[in-house]
Design goal:
Chain A: Belongs to the ATPase C chain family. Chain A: Keywords: ATP synthesis, Cell membrane, CF(0), Hydrogen ion transport, Ion transport, Lipid-binding, Membrane, Transmembrane, Transmembrane helix, Transport. Chain A: It is a multi-pass membrane protein. Chain A: This is ATP synthase subunit c. The complex is a heterodimer of chains A (about 80) and B (about 270). Chain A is mostly helical and about 80 residues long. Helix content of chain A is about 85%, strand content about 0%. Chain A contains 4 helices and no strands. The longest helix of chain A has 27 residues. The two termini of chain A are about 15 Å apart. With about 270 residues, chain B is mainly α. A two-stranded antiparallel ribbon of chain B has the order 1-2. In chain B, a hairpin with a 2-residue loop joins strand 1 and strand 2. Chain B is globular. Chain B starts with about 30 loop residues before the first strand and ends with a helix. The chains are: A mainly alpha (about 80), B mainly alpha (about 270). Chains A and B meet through helix 4 of A and helix 2, helix 5 and helix 6 of B.
Chain lengths: ~80, ~270
């Protein structure tokens, strides 16, 4: 296997993390809805926390994406 | 990958080309301590963003007794930011409103300008917030506010931020290091989140734009792919408009949370 194809495969593997972060973000909003529907009057006060959780989960996915892009666009090792 | 030769080569779009900072108005450039100082497309779009914010605010600050639609819009945004600060910092937070409001408006308008389809009239928008230097600077200013306020108000007691209440004595060194690390990572995570989110969305759209061009070139049955891609681009663009707003909100929210740490300790 030559190096440039290994690079592309590596980038693809790194992108798995984005999918994992998608699960995380879905979990954040899903759990929020689950709780919010049980007690709708308390839901509005928790929106800040919802978005903090979303931001934390999303950041990891974005880091995975950044790593994938760095691998994909790195100058091919000679 | 060779950048800068966007569409001409092989009928492909280089998705990274849109993030390139290029000097425009060549005559204005000068040399400062060995650094090229130029008026770039990034600077131009920052001006556009500032002018838009100015016009937006100007139109709604007429203080009419019966607010019109525009004034309602401006009051809505101000109330929104006020609310973020009120819930996360509390009564002491009033003095930070200008900075958080500036952050929110600048990021929101810069993100949205980057999504505007003005490319069809030949003006290609540049997303100011897709550069780490820009988001990094915003995050650095926020972080310096936290440090300055923290040490100004609490002196060395500010370090108690890194030791939560009720930590068992033998655990204190470990917890201190972990909390310190998570504190120092904050500006990077703040800057990285915004910049990568913007880059990711734009690359996604451009990759699918690439599909459209290539499948139209191929002709025949692959025209179906072109059609699907265009529909997909429309949906992703709509989603991106939402993400733009969420990212601006998250940046402002996290900044005010970090300022809360400095203002009120625990």
């Amino acid at each position: 296997m030559d190096l440039s194809s290994a690079q592309v495969i590596g980038a693809g593997l790194a992108a798995i993390g984005v999918g994992a972060a998608a699960t995380g973000v879905g979990n954040v909003f899903g759990s929020f809805l689950e709780g919010a529907l049980r007690n709708p009057s308390a839901a509005d006060g928790q929106q800040g926390r919802l978005f903090i959780g979303f931001a934390a989960a999303e950041l990891l996915g974005l880091i995975a994406f950044a790593v994938a892009m760095i691998i994909l666009y790195a100058p091919p090792a000679a | 990958m060779i950048r800068g030769k966007s569409v001409a080569e092989e009928g492909k779009i280089d998705p990274m080309y849109q993030f390139e900072v290029q000097p425009i108005l060549e005559g204005l450039g000068f040399n400062l301590f060995g650094q090229e100082i130029n008026f770039t497309n990034s600077a131009l779009w920052m001006f556009v963003v500032l002018v838009t914010i100015y016009l937006f605010m100007r139109g709604g600050m007429k203080r009419e007794l019966v607010p019109g639609r525009w004034q309602l819009m401006v009051e809505g945004v101000i109330g929104f930011v006020d609310n973020i600060i009120d819930t996360s910092i509390g009564p002491n937070g009033k003095k930070y409103t200008p900075w958080v409001f500036t952050l929110f408006m600048f990021i929101l308008f810069a993100n949205w300008w980057g999504m505007m389809p003005v490319g069809i009239v030949g003006i290609h928008p540049f997303t100011v917030t897709s550069q780490f230097t820009v988001t990094g600077l915003l995050a650095a200013i926020s972080f310096s506010i936290v440090l300055i306020v923290g040490f100004w108000k609490h002196g060395f007691k500010f370090f108690s931020l890194f030791v939560p209440h009720g930590t068992p004595l033998p655990m204190i060194p470990l917890i201190f290091m972990v909390e310190l690390l998570s504190f120092l990572v904050r500006p990077f995570s703040l800057a990285l989140r915004l910049f990568v989110a913007m880059i990711a969305g734009h690359i996604l759209v451009k990759v699918f734009a690439n599909f459209v061009i290539q499948s139209i070139d191929a002709g025949g049955a692959s025209l179906l792919v072109a059609g699907l891609s265009i529909v997909f681009i429309a949906f992703v663009s709509a989603l991106e408009l939402l993400v733009c707003a969420i990212q601006a909100y998250v940046f402002a929210l996290l900044t005010s949370l970090y300022i809360n740490d400095a203002e009120n300790l625990h």
